[in-house]
Amino acid sequence: MSQSFDARQLRETTAAESAPTPAQFRQAMLRHLQYTVGKSPQQASLFDWRMALSHTVRDYAVDPWFSATRRTWDEDRKRVYYLSMEFLIGRLLEDQAINLGLRDVMVQVLAEFGLSFDEVAEGEPDAALGNGGLGRLAACYLESMATMGCPAYGYGLRYEHGLFRQHFENGRQIETPENWLATDNPWDFTRPEAAYPVGFGGELHDHDGASIWSPRSKVLASAHDTPVVGYGGQWANTLRLWAAMPSADLFNLDRFNAGDFAAASEPEALARSLSRVLYPNDTTEGGKELRLSQEYFLTSASVQDILRRYLAAHDDLLKLPEFVAIQMNDTHPAIAGPELIRLLVDEHAVDFDTAVETATSVLGYTNHTLLPEALERWSVGLMRKVLPRHLQIIETLDTQFIALQGQAPNPVRLISNDQVSMGDLAFTTSHKVNGVSALHTELVSQELFPVHNELHPGRIVNITNGVTPRRWLKLANPSLAALITDTIGAGWESDLERLRELEPYAEDPAFRDAFGRSKRQAKEHFTGWLAAEHGIELPAEALYDAQVKRLHEYKRQLLNILWTIAHWQRIKRDPQANWVPRVKIFGGKAAPSYHMAKLIIQLINDVAEVVNNDPETRHLLRVVYPPNYGVSMAEKLIPAADLSEQISTAGMEASGTGNMKFALNGALTIGTLDGANVEIREHVGAENFFLFGLTTEQVGERRAQQGHSRAALEASQTLRDVLQAIAEGTFSPEDHHRYDGLLETMWNSDWFLVASDFEDYDRAQGEVADCYSDPEKWQRMAILNIARMGYFSSDRSIREYMSQIWDVESAL
Ligand code: 8GP
């Protein structure tokens, strides 16, 4: 397969200098309209134009994709494999066009046909193959790996239904299935030749001291590839998503012919269910057996594919770590350790200890949460039923791990209380384990894995998260991006530290004005969309104060809405005072079974109903909660925000990445010392950040104090007035008891310390308002935020993964 490679040829076919002229692009697009879509320009609908356009852009991705693949083979390079149950990639058309340097030509050519790009692009489904943070991070990392020229594959599942759609009925969240594949997906290359059987259940037999696994059933994993082009079009990697396919023999023709159609298709349907839905739970796992089977399905197909690719060019499996790095995105693919060991031992006759050593050198594990309910544990019974051979391997690893702990009276175990701890398993089978912010990594070492950490000093490393500036600034905020390019020149997109060159302009009134104009444009873009899509009109001249993320008690949307009520009450008491007009923006989904989170959504919507209809305060305070928050909404909303709410209980948010996107777009942060907030504050300067709240250590102390919630409430008349209004049914006149449970929690337990942090949050919000009243000061702070956010590019994170974990070099 190794053809000799000519680097000059690569440059000819990949670099932006090969960008087409408008005439060439038009011709290519019309060709696709006619021959791929089968329409003439006169007949074409917006959908047809989008298909033709996407196929045209995709064509330009293929050359860099081929040459990157060919070079990786020819130069026998090490590859990175990023295994993730979630890839929250969002729309691809504009993203790919930007990275290929095609955006301007594309917009121009569409305009020649009287079409606006935004209108055409708006029809693209938002590929929501993830829940939130960890899934979106995986998408940013894929794009950065391609930009950095790191040879890599993302491996995931091709869910037929991504994250559910959310709408509100009487303020309550209602979920309906998402259907992103309902129409053609133009980015998809189907690879029927890349298909692997994945076995489940069955028996173990002993044969000459070796275990032979005979699975009860097998499901075929069939590959679908999407090219992921890096910025500048120099390199492209592959996102490979597995679809579950029944093997042909599952369909029972006899039964079908006998008229029992449903029964004939049942085994087939069961097999397909493996890639049917993404689990919508952000913390706890539902449908245990199916979920475990999905995880194994992803992992096994990927590991088989990795070994097949390796063995096509090498024969010594012990050299695997020199050529392969596998990253496990949280514990969902943690069965990769036992699976790799199984394949090495059972199918390639490697001895057990060598297999363990090899697997461990290849694997890395990223932890994304300390929440106990999100740390996966599978019952031994279920494991035995679904993956008997893997359980056997885990038992051996457990015995070895206990031995490693010597005489420890209570050794940590991979299996305890009849459950397999996937975190402990992932740790023992990885050569590096990383947290996602400095504070989180500290807590991972001290609280989650103290024993492991002592046994394996140096195994835990920190890699603070980052976000891609291509999507989250250049694409999402064209007016600010243009201002930056006009001011410091192009190139910051792939060298984000260059934003520092903006620092002196914070003192330049003309630049500050221009920044103000770009923020206004972003607001108009957002409000225009909000009016068209949701019929919500917003005042342009107001402080846009946003909290968008999954709904979770630790993220404390409750603190935000309680403060909003307090603010409303204050305005009503003194309507003539000099109030800063505010728009409180909320966005995010709650796990369908998370009752308290859904109640908080309802409270926000109930408060919005009352506050937005209050003629006395309407011009000063609005509450909006556009439904179905996702990547595409974030792209419009984040650039429009002035204030970013990052207000989790300290010690509970592993990192956050929304916090980075907002600050990069010139929103100031009101936040606690949690996750990456700590580092953002260090970078942008404490004077440019609104800090409040207890520290992680104080959180621990406060929780230990008996009656802390009641004490905090007794100390805050403001908060008591708020709770009183809720209790009286001010926001739920038809049901005074709707929030009894929530109020009860506030008075008697308050694990997330909403009451304890309320007064300090109120103080910080006061500072926000004062500061916003001085536009010059506010703009100076916002500009310094942008200028100092270079560190939070996902390119930096990926560079660190490459050197500290994967030991892989850039091919560029
Ligand atoms: C999230 C963390 O909550 C967030 O702080 C962090 O920025 C992000 O990961 C990326 O590192 N965690 C998850 O998304 C998560 O744990 N999801 C799994 C339960 C599905």
Please estimate the helix content.
Answer: 40-55%
**Main sheet characteristics:** 9 strands, mixed
Query: How would you name the CATH homologous superfamily of the domain at 484-709 and 757-792?
Result: Glycogen Phosphorylase B
CATH architecture descriptor of the domain at 484-709 and 757-792: 3-Layer(aba) Sandwich
For the largest beta sheet, what order do the strands appear in spatially?
A: 7-10-11-4-1-12-13-17-18
How would you describe the shape?
Answer: globular
Identify low-pLDDT runs.
1-16
Question: What count of helical segments does DSSP give?
Answer: 33
Q: According to CATH, what is the topology of the domain at 484-709 and 757-792?
A: Rossmann fold
The radius of gyration over CA amounts to: 27 Å
Q: CA-to-CA gap between the ends?
A: 22 Å
CATH class of the domain at 484-709 and 757-792: Alpha Beta
Question: What ligands are attached or bound here?
Answer: N-[(cyclopropylamino)(oxo)acetyl]-beta-D-glucopyranosylamine
Percent of residues in β-strands: 15-25%
Number-wise, the strands total 24
Q: What's the pLDDT, averaged over the residues?
A: 94
Which structural class do you get from the secondary structure elements? alpha/beta
